[in-house]
TrEMBL record:
The name this protein goes by in its record: Protein-glutamate methylesterase/protein-glutamine glutaminase
Top-level division of the source organism's lineage: Bacteria
Positions of the CheB-type methylesterase domain: 161-353
Modified residues (4-aspartylphosphate): D57
Gene expressing this chain: cheB
Source organism: Marinobacter nanhaiticus D15-8W
Main location: cytoplasm
NCBIfam families (alphabetical): PRK00742.1, PRK12555.1
UniProt EC number: 3.1.1.61, 3.5.1.44
Subcellular compartments: Cytoplasm
Entry remark concerning the domains of this protein: Contains a C-terminal catalytic domain, and an N-terminal region which modulates catalytic activity.
Lineage: Bacteria, Pseudomonadati, Pseudomonadota, Gammaproteobacteria, Pseudomonadales
PTM statement from Swiss-Prot or TrEMBL: Phosphorylated by CheA. Phosphorylation of the N-terminal regulatory domain activates the methylesterase activity.
A GO CC term attached to the entry: cytoplasm
PROSITE patterns: CHEB, RESPONSE_REGULATORY
Main function: Involved in chemotaxis. Part of a chemotaxis signal transduction system that modulates chemotaxis in response to various stimuli. Catalyzes the demethylation of specific methylglutamate residues introduced into the chemoreceptors (methyl-accepting chemotaxis proteins or MCP) by CheR. Also mediates the irreversible deamidation of specific glutamine residues to glutamic acid.
């Protein structure tokens, strides 16, 4: 019989604490071990009964969530899910918290809070359950990487049929725990790495801040994708939150299409949407990688890539924060290779060669 997950809520809003407690406690697998309006009160209460998962607000009195999170990860690492306001400022602050060791993020609007939380109750429960199973790795600060002063974009080549091009494209999909995994991989890549397209399950407004943060610490260029962007060596394009991203072609060039549409596998952007397009457009010129995440998004798309001749990789269980998406891909025969996270960057570099 599975053990009940003990969750503790830290938020300065009494309404948020009440609504979250009601939603989570409605699931028999989750028990609310307590709540507090700020981290200092939380620490006092949690000492008596330490939780399995902490739901944490970012902006609070006396001690902010990021300071508390860093203290927590140094002294007693515990899975933390950030509950943050869906704004540009909130997105930047929340990403700092993710970098400090948070497992996932739940977004909340400034108005209509109760209706919003209740409509997303199933997702919240899934996030808490996934966080309880998360494997926490030490968090280390990244030093911004130096870039060459010259433009690293390749010289424009004459147009040739795409079927004859040797240009490589790397498609990478991830979810829960993916912010850390992507950082670990992309910071190890050289400035002339193959063109990379990424889907990281993340709410709108968050992906731009995430891409900007990675751009400061990577040798390659990282940015949020815009419809029509060309896929180039040394460039990483991250799908915008709330939109799907697909690979397209224009003559001998790879480009991305960024469009709206229904959720696929409960997600927008969806890894499956990206992977299926890469299978169709790039075929054997592609490398597909699926990493840590909850659920099965990307498993069928990775299988389509493998059938199209692409090399496919899944992250192993030992280094995945949540071994959901990689496990599904492996079980469906979509992964030609299973690698630990530290080996992913070298796999991408070898593909470029």
């Amino acid at each position: 019989m599975n053990r009940t997950i003990k969750a503790f809520i830290v938020d300065d809003s009494a309404v948020v604490r009440q609504v979250l407690a009601q939603i989570l406690a409605a699931d028999p697998a989750i028990e609310i071990s307590g709540s507090a309006p700020d981290p200092l009160f939380a620490l006092q209460k949690m000492q008596k009964d330490w939780p399995d998962v902490i739901v944490l607000d970012v902006e609070m009195p006396r001690m902010d969530g990021i300071t508390f999170l860093r203290k927590l990860m140094q002294e007693r690492p515990t899975p933390v899910v950030i509950c943050s306001t869906l704004t540009e400022k909130g997105a930047d602050t929340t990403l700092q918290a993710m970098s400090a060791g948070a497992v996932d993020v739940i977004t909340k609007p400034k108005v209509g809070l109760k209706d919003f939380l209740e409509s997303g109750s199933q997702h919240m429960v899934q996030v808490i359950k996934a966080a309880a199973r998360a494997r926490l790795a030490p968090v280390t600060a990244k030093v911004p990487a130096s870039r060459p002063a010259q433009d690293v974009s390749p010289t424009k080549a004459p147009a040739i049929p795409l079927s004859r091009t040797t240009d490589q494209v790397v498609a990478l999909g991830t979810s829960t725990g993916g912010t850390h995994a992507l950082e670990a991989v992309l910071t190890q890549l050289p400035a002339d790495c193959p063109g990379i397209v990424v889907v990281q399950h993340m709410p709108e407004k968050f992906t731009a801040a995430f891409a900007e943060r990675l751009n400061h610490i990577c040798r390659c260029e990282v940015r949020e994708a815009v419809d029509g962007d060309r896929v180039l060596p040394g460039l990483v394009l991250i799908a915008p939150g709330g939109l799907h991203m697909q690979l397209r072609r224009s003559g001998a060039q790879y480009r991305v299409g960024v469009t709206d549409g229904p959720r696929v596998n409960r997600h927008k952007p969806s890894v499956d949407v990206l992977f299926r397009s890469v299978a169709s457009i790039a075929g054997r010129n592609a490398l597909g990688i699926i990493m840590t995440g909850m659920g099965d998004d990307g498993a069928n798309g990775l299988l389509a890539m493998r059938h199209a001749g692409a090399h496919t990789i899944a992250q192993d269980k030992e280094t995945s924060v949540v071994f959901g998406m990689p496990r599904e891909a492996i079980e469906r025969g979509a992964a030609a290779e299973i690698l630990p996270l530290p080996a992913m960057a070298e796999a991408i570099i070898q593909r470029g060669r």
